[in-house]
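so i finally got all the pieces together for this one. its two components total, 744 residues if u count the protein bits. some of the lines might not be protein, just check the labels. i wanna see the whole assembly predicted at once instead of chain by chain like last time, that was a mess tbh
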Amino acid sequence: MKRYVAIWLRHLLVDRVLLTRPELEGKSFVLAAKERNRMVVKASSRDALKLGIEPGMVLADARAVQPDLQVVDYDQALPEKLLYALAEWAIRYSPLVAVDLPDGLILDATGCAHLWGSEAAYLKDIATRLKSSGYDVRTAMADTIGTAWAVSRYSRSFPIIAPGEQLSALLPLPPHALRLEAPVIEKMQKLGLYQIKSFIYMPPSVLRRRFGQTTLDQIGKALGNTHEAFEPVQPAEPYQERLSSLEPIQTAAGIEIAIQNLLEKVCERLVKDGNGARQAVLRCYRIDGEIQQVQIGTSGPSCSASHMFKLFELKIASIEPALGIELFVMEAPVTEPLANAQEALWDLSSGNKITAIAELIDRLSARAGADVIHRYLPAQHHWPERAITEATSLTDQPEIDWRTDQHRPVQLLAQPERIIVSAPVPDYPPMLFRYKGDIHRIKKADGPNRIEQEWWIADGMHRDYYAVEDEHGGRYWIFRLGHYNEELSAEWFIHGFFA
Amino acid sequence: METALKKSELVARLRSDILALQGFRAPALGVKHDDFGLGPVMKAFPQGVFPRVGMHEFISQSAEQTAATSGFMAALAGKMMKQDGLCVWVGTCRTIYPFALSQFGVSPDRVIFVDLKKDKDLLWAIEEALKCDALSAVVGEIKELNLTESRRLQLTVEESKVTGLLHRVSPRLSNPVAAVCRWRISPLPSVADDVLPGIGFPRWQVEIEKVRNGEPGSWPLQFRDGSFELTSDSVSFHQYISKVG
């Protein structure tokens, strides 16, 4: 059984204008817009209404009634914008809130009211909150959207319609309460049908013939016989959990408890569905109406509450609780099936190992940035800078074997550095070289090992590499750039240190 | 005579008790311990067992020493990783050439390099990595380290049983830290031979400056075909040929 709340913001635009321009309080003013080359009143303030200035009047007529009438520009997009903002705000009362243009909101309050103690307290809280922020509001609660809407607009009686009591609540109301089209209402009034009870018991075939199928549909929607579509402003996330706090939370410890609590619930549902979260978002609704949001991402689908908590722990400091947080909403907007967790990450023996390492990587990248983690695979290049290529994901496997027959230094300089060398004859290893002011006398040497620049990738000269060892046992990788030239002294570089 | 025997028994028992209290477990009978092929170096460790549950501190002062230490650490990490282990290598300015690690028995794609930008993240990252018991070893390259920080890392290691190898590259002062072992690896001229040209296998002076409950010492070691071997300077060409076969 569903329960719906209809909120009617009678003077939505007027209240809004008063909020932004308090000096208009107590004055008669209207919001007007140009329509067919004349200014037409779109909304009028309470004082203007008392004088009989109704929406739909031409502004000139209204001016005739009240010469010092103030006019405010009417923005066509404003009601929708306002209602959407209010709907976002009302998510604290129910996750399913729909905008009911032009001046209302509908809440799917099924299973929500008990959190406030009772339905009456629930409605009262909504009304008080909205009234205190300056909006004139009327609310009603019923089993169907239609009845709640009707009662909120047209009934002066108790606004909570008990389950199943739709019909008796509708009987005394005017036909307008059924959200009928204007021509139908006009027809009904001509026929003297001023209350719903005067026609609702008519046989459906008669009603259809006289007033059309839509009338029957609207009656069905109000009574709950026909389904009424409900479009919430925020579609419910499949993995969303809410935690409202009895008292506003201000401390980090409190936030931690809330996060743990929510993560456990979310993860429980994720595990049940065999899914893992790739992203999780925590929204903190503050009592001053602001929303604080933190977000984490994981490198692989995760359904471990403790792991995600560790990631959130790093972000807690960035949440500003200000006067306090009254509602926490945790959701996992991006999920992936967990099935591939068993896939081999370097064909490890146990699945636990993979998760542990993926979690470690998540933690590291959450704090220091994703670009700090590197893993390398062999590439089919001899040029030392290109012989390794960075792995794009943790599951990448090397396509070729690592070569061990090539003697490469364990420490490689990012840029080869110039050295001064004295070499006896062309293509012989040098006798000594000077690097950073120290002279190294070469005792043993291997080489030359010529590595050609790959012309299809970059221009440049080849390198003739020598592995040399000095008298103290230091082993170096040095090269001569290009061919030996009699006129120019050859350019020598040091490129690395062997172990 | 009898009392003397009792006394020595008592002392031996007390010694092993103290070791147990200090976190060393006596090698159980029949349990095979990794000896990493370190040969004579193993005698330096308490009861001849390489302390896996501990932080090892390596100090190097020059670029040559850094390279030698990197090679030695890679070889040790390779022994720890065996076939399917994983290793995390943390540092701020990495000069390690991953390609070369394969020469030391480490498959370079099984090493995750964490190249941090800020020094202050370094200790945190090393500690996080040490907490992850799915790893075989964690190598950290750090310049300065004080006793408190190292104690913290050592406690993490004792919790997770992941061996930590800390490489202190030219530290300003070699202050005492809470590592089980302090190593200093310096390159030695290779001993291929006098006749054949070219340089030989990596050869180092492996020095254990400090070891908890053990005997410090210094050995010339050579790394050949994936294992350590003790060498002396006086290996002649003929001896070498006869050994190689």
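Confidence is low (pLDDT under 50) at residues 340-350 of chain A.
The domain at 4-154 of chain A is CATH 3.40.1170.60 (MutS, DNA mismatch repair protein, domain I).
anyway lmk what u think
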